[in-house]
Amino acid sequence: MQEAHNSSRAASPGEQLKEPGAFASQREVKTFGGLSLKGLLANKLLSALPTADFARLLPHLEPVSLAANQELHKFGEAIKFSYFPENAVISHLHILADGATTEIAIIGREGMIGLSAILGCHTPSYVTKVLVAGSALRIRNEVLKQEFARGGAFQRLLLKYASARITQISQKAICNGRHKVDERFCAWLLMIQDRAGDGQLSLTQEQISRHLGARRAGVTVVAAALRDKGIISYRRGLIRILDRQALEVAACECYRTLHSLLIQQ
Amino acid sequence: MSQTLIENSTLAANENRILAALSLQEFERLAPHLEPVSLSLSQVLFMPEDQLQYAYLPTNSIISLLTDLEDGSGMEVGLVGKEGIAGVSAFLGGRETKVATVQGEGEALRIRAEKLREEFHRGEALQTLLLRYTHALMTQISQSVVCNARHPIEGRLARWLLMYSDRSKDDFFLTHEFMANMLGVRRAGVSTVANKLQKMGFIRYHRGQVTILDRKGLEDFACECYPKVKERYDGFLL
Lengths: 265, 238
Prior knowledge:
The complex is a heterodimer. By secondary structure, chain A is of the alpha+beta class. Chain A has 2 domains: 2-172, Jelly Rolls, CATH 2.60.120; 179-264, Winged helix-like DNA-binding domain superfamily/Winged helix DNA-binding domain (Arc Repressor Mutant, subunit A), CATH 1.10.10.10. Chain A is built from 11 helices and 12 strands. Chain A has a 4-stranded antiparallel beta sheet. Chain A starts with a helix and ends with a helix. By secondary structure, chain B is of the alpha+beta class. Chain B has 2 domains: 3-145, Jelly Rolls; 152-222, Winged helix-like DNA-binding domain superfamily/Winged helix DNA-binding domain (Arc Repressor Mutant, subunit A, Orthogonal Bundle), CATH 1.10.10. Chain B is built from 11 helices and 10 strands. The interface between A and B is large, with 41 and 41 residues.
């Protein structure tokens, strides 16, 4: 992966796109002591592709840097790109009529953003927002759909991922119906960390309440309790997990259930 | 298969929207593999971890999808009626992760999972329809995510009753267990919520028998989750 990124640069949001294929000259699939380059890819879906399929996609995968709170698709707008996150963490947020939001799913390197396009829907009814800044590989939807239509390994992979996504949101539905804010918050933090890597998470209480679909007052109480127990540190909008094991105990079972799904994929 | 059987299958199949949207050619290829079945109330069609044997296309029956928790309890997250198919793992791959239970007894067409997969992979209209249906299903379940976090229990019951009657009629029977699992409450709590809707004049409710009296009122009362998903479902075949 180091080889691949040396000679290409991340496009910043709004920057002019190069023609697809322009990246091909900058990157090659190399074998590196017998280990294929794609095996070093952070995104699990891409790294699971057979070499030939990956080689076809590679010229069209553009490394991008995603900024926190960046909206990848504007609500109601036709989606043009799909994303394979590396260490960026992205949310699908549902917006209610009164402006309140609820998170439907978080997606990181285990998945991709753009299932809707594959499934034939071009104007999803939710907002896609970057929760934790980081890197991703971006691809034009025409290319994605073309590769999908071949009916080979890439199609099978994305279909299986669609199934995993349904499982993820089903678990979230029951979680929101049955579990309390404190345990949901713990599960959510763990899921973010699994995708973003260790380190601090920049999250305001407002953001947390919007993503959990919970009242802000409730979030404040829960966050303070976790901080007082030494499970997390939370200062100036920065959260760091101090005691992961304790957080796992405090989380609802949904974390365990979805985590084992993640490993299986 | 005899001509009469094919004709009967065809008649039944026209009641399922996915099958009705196929070209004659595609339908004729599928028809010999569509077996008409009668589904009885509370029959479990498949469970999590099952390697799926059959996918089901309801014609006038209704199937619910439940996600279960470690303690054995669960919550309903979606409904499948004549607009869809139960058993999407047949073409998506992987294992089923929900419990599919018959909540509205009636007829369906069932097809062997491998056969459906085979037909799906021809890459024709059936594939497009099934993928669009998958998206509609994801939208329905996503709405439950929102609804369960944000909306009051009476509004949620209203939503479920409307979703159910869209696939059935205005007069139907629901088991207490099913209603409890829709709302995430204990069985004892179901009557309280149902009686509230009855008091407001939207439904008549007696021991599980539901009659929708004021559909417009119920729709206005239900949370916005109802029209949002209905829009998607009505449009998915386009």
